[in-house]
Design goal:
- The protein has a single domain, classed as Rossmann fold.
- The protein is built from twelve helices and eight strands.
- The protein has helices spanning about 25-40, 55, 80-95, 105-115, 120-130, 145-160, 165-180, 195-210, 230-240, 245-250, 255-280, 300-315; strands at about 15-20, 45, 70, 75-80, 140, 185-190, 215-225, 285-290.
- It has an eight-stranded mixed beta sheet, with helices on both faces.
- β3 (about 70) and β4 form a beta hairpin.
- α1 crosses α12 (about 300-315), α3 packs across α5 (about 120-130) and α5 packs across α7.
- Bound molecules: adenosine-5'-diphosphate and magnesium ion.
- Adenosine-5'-diphosphate binds next to α1, β7 and α12.
Amino acid sequence: MASGAAPSILDRRLVFVTGKGGVGKTSVAAALAHLSASHGRRTLVCEMDAKGSLADAFDASPLTFKEREVEPNLFAMAMNTEDALREYLRLFVKVPFLGKIGPLARTFDFVADAAPGVREILTVGKFCWEAKEHNYDLIVVDAEATGHIVAQIGAPLVIRDLVQVGLVRDQTDWMLEVLHDPTVTGVAVVTTPEEMPVTETLGLLDRLADETGVEATTLIANRVLPALFDRRQTAIVDRLDEVEDLLVDAAGKNVRAVMEAAHITEARRRIGSAHLSRLREHTDLPMLMVPELFTRATGRRVVSLVADALAEEFD
Ligand SMILES: Nc1ncnc2c1ncn2[C@@H]1O[C@H](COP(=O)(O)OP(=O)(O)O)[C@@H](O)[C@H]1O
Ligand SMILES: [Mg+2]
């Protein structure tokens, strides 16, 4: 797989995929996981937001906390804080008869609402544990959107500074070891070539560095419009107006609509690439490009097209 100058995001063991809502986080997370699994690596992919889009991406029935193999080598799960709490109590607190204890949700909500970071540390802790135990070659988290990811992966740091001693405090050290090792953990930020997603991406990069200590590894520019024209052809598009009347005389009024479409398409692509340039001016992170797919396909078909585009970028 990717070697040479830029180490691939797939060479990490724990990758959080984030970005503004709707930019393609789930599609990209599913595609990265699919690529990894198709290289024979045991891979876990987890949805955080319980929307069910990750199951849809694999044309699978709803996912649960218990992971399920959706493709060879590819296991999928959905995060659920109550299940994460049960697992935590079983693994670390060694609470006996855990199965006999009724729903924990209400007690848990009470604690979680009172103490900052508790809910987040349970979920992020699950991934850190799987990474620490080497249960998978790669864990891809279809993570929270830009607004919440910092609270999630920053939780162990917040708790370490808040709680001085005790069981919870003891847990933060090994979690931070996993999260703060850039050879193990990375964040992939997905954006589209548009103003707001790019602005949110820039804000997120600053906050990740200031508040979490987790390394942003890669940017993924999704839905990039293909360049339809080379430089000379673009020059022609720009000068079409000069010959518009001639063309209309020759081919009829419809020529105007065709020319307008060429202008609009070219203008959209330029605006998009200006937004991506703004990103490049602020960061040296590698940027992988995924084109706009122009398809009505859904599910696995989209995942495999996005994966093909990413694979080309890794070569
Ligand atoms: N490169 C692309 N080209 C066309 N459509 C895309 C592309 N990437 C994602 N989509 C579509 O955009 C929609 C939102 O994508 P999704 O991955 O669910 O975003 P998010 O998880 O960020 O909300 C989905 O319908 C998906 O199929
Ligand atoms: Mg999603």
